[in-house]
Design a protein that fits this description.
- The chain has 511 residues and is α/β, with parallel strands linked by helices.
- It has helices at 16-30, 43-54, 59-77, 82-85, 89-92, 96-107, 109-121, 125-143, 163-166, 169-190, 196-221, 241-244, 250-261, 285-294, 418-434, 480-484, 487-509, and strands at residues 4-7, 10-13, 231-236, 269-271, 300-311, 314-324, 330-335, 371-375, 378-385, 404-409, 438-442, 447-450, 456-460, 466-471.
- The strands form three sheets. Strands 7-6-5-4-3-14 form a six-stranded mixed β-sheet.
């Protein structure tokens, strides 16, 4: 049997295997802190446990524990990705499990680097908790940046379902909320030290942070922000991914979106999800005329659609949002700029003998970046497509702030798994960060109207077919995060590091 002994302030485990298994299960347990479970009570167990497993350890031992924690966290938190491989099971089904396991193992290198760096600091107690939070948050920022980034399931999303703590993202963004969350989760573990002075300081710091975040969130939510007079209509066609591009269902799929759009009720903005039209809509004058016939004179349609254009070396394909006016003219085009590796393009295509998971004749070409579109007589909109909504600080054109954000998405790839619910949580955090309403049109759900506080005003659930009419929430004043971006997160990081160094020096000078 493995011998396990817990000693404050560290944890000694006689077997490296036992340590790794403990870390693995702590990481898997941490998934329960995120939507749709949203159990923040688990945070001190998972992150306090990881802190105790790595404090006072060597870089190698701590790094291995961090890697095992990451494997558990990503393996269970991202297991839904396997669903996409079974859409075309004959070609890709056998790749599902290896792909998820490989992704989890690769992403786990970021927590491994975090815990190895923490161990290298040789700090413990409250200074150690500060540095532990810094290392974890920097690793999350790197995960969202390196190799185009994958900032899914940031630990700050543990508060996505909670109105008051979620508001902190308006100041420091989701990476900053994660920084605060990990510190709050780690401080209780430092109380295992038999040091009255340190324990008192840790308790005061914990209470101050909780009270401060609670006060800021409560005050922000007290503002009265009535909705605009603009009405949006979201159409959720609920077409399974296996039928979306099947020629046998093409006429039915088009008719479903047109018929749902024509249901009784007044609207100013008609919203269809990503790739709602099974083909190249801008090349279909008959369909554009049918759309024009159902649009009121002062309204427009925003719809996801694939587009293509001839170029010198061939054809350029883009995943786009088209703005269609009441006369059937295309008023504006937006091209997705943050593409999904292996879903919309194959990185290092000349080296990797792999195929895209999505149907199409070639890789998509990225657009230039976030874009604000001016709509005639309607609030200007910032456009994003699916995956783009997961990246903090990258959904709005900084040079031209919109009044709202439209996210066209297609989560049908992932069925009724955790994926669509986690995607919705990310969208809610983007709304808080920017202080802008976020409206999601999702093929199979979850479609939603979200205000600038991250509250869901209206929604259509998973696997529902129908329309959702709602008044567009008002834009809030520019948030500190919206104005300064990740600089706010970096300032808090610097404060944590300075605090850790200052506390360490002060302790050394105490007689």
């Amino acid at each position: 049997m493995f011998s396990v002994c817990i000693t404050a302030p560290g944890v000694w485990i006689s077997s490296g295997l036992a340590r790794s298994l403990s870390a693995f299960f702590l990481g898997a347990f941490a998934v329960l802190t995120l939507p749709p479970f949203s159990l923040p009570v688990v945070l001190p167990i998972s992150f306090g446990g990881l802190y105790l497993l790595t404090v006072r350890e060597t870089r190698r031992t701590a790094g291995l524990a961090g890697w095992a924690f990451g494997v558990g966290f990503f393996l269970f938190g991202l297991s839904w990705i396997a669903e996409s491989f079974y859409v075309d099971a004959e070609r890709f089904g056998l790749m599902a499990v290896p792909a998820v396991v490989g992704l989890a193992a690769g992403l786990a290198l970021f927590p491994a680097a975090a815990t190895a760096a923490f161990a290298g600091s040789r700090m413990k107690g409250v200074p150690g908790a500060l540095i532990f939070a810094v290392c974890w948050s920097v690793s999350e920022w790197l995960r969202g940046t390196v190799l185009t980034g994958f900032s899914w399931n940031l630990i700050g999303y543990a508060w996505a379902d909670f109105d008051v703590p979620r508001q902190a993202a308006a100041w420091v963004g989701s990476y900053g909320v994660g920084l605060l969350t990990v510190l709050l989760s780690t401080l209780p573990a430092t109380l295992l030290v038999r040091d009255r002075r340190q324990n008192a300081f840790a308790t005061i710091l914990l209470m101050t942070l909780v009270a401060g975040a609670g006060t800021l969130g409560t005050v922000r939510l007290m503002a009265l922000t009535p909705p605009t007079d603009t009405t949006v209509r979201i159409v959720q066609g609920n077409i399974p991914q296996t039928e979306k591009w099947d020629p046998a269902f093409r006429a039915r799929n088009i008719a479903r979106y047109l018929d749902l759009s024509a249901e009784p009720g007044a609207f100013d903005l008609l919203l269809w999800p990503e790739s709602a039209f099974p083909g190249y809509l801008d090349e279909e004058p008959d369909i554009l005329k049918r759309i024009a016939d159902l649009l009121p004179e002062t309204s427009v349609l925003l719809t996801g659609a694939q587009t293509r254009q001839s170029a010198g070396r061939g054809t350029i394909y883009r995943n786009s949002v088209l703005t269609i006016g009441p006369s059937g003219d295309i008023l504006a085009r937006y091209a997705k700029h943050h593409l999904v590796p292996f879903g919309e393009y194959v990185p290092w295509r000349d080296v990797l003998p792999l195929q895209r998971l999505t149907a199409g004749l070639g890789d998509f070409t990225p657009g230039p970046g976030p874009q604000t579109v001016e709509l005639p007589g309607l609030p200007p909109v910032g456009l994003s497509i699916c995956y783009e909504a997961i990246f903090p600080g990258r959904v709005v054109d900084a040079a031209s702030r919109p009044d709202w954000i439209f996210n066209a998405t297609n989560d049908a790839w992932f069925g009724a798994s955790l994926g669509p619910r986690q995607h919705l949580a990310a969208a809610r955090m983007r709304a808080v960060e920017e202080g802008l309403p976020m409206v999601r049109a999702a093929n199979t759900g979850i479609s939603a109207v979200i205000d600038g506080y991250g509250r869901i005003v209206a929604r259509l659930g998973l696997d529902e077919t129908g329309v959702l009419d709602a008044r567009l929430p008002a834009a809030l004043p520019t948030t500190p995060f919206g104005k300064y971006g990740q600089m706010m997160f970096l300032l808090v990081l610097a404060a944590y590091i300075a605090g850790a160094i200052g506390l360490t020096i002060a302790k050394e000078n105490v007689p």
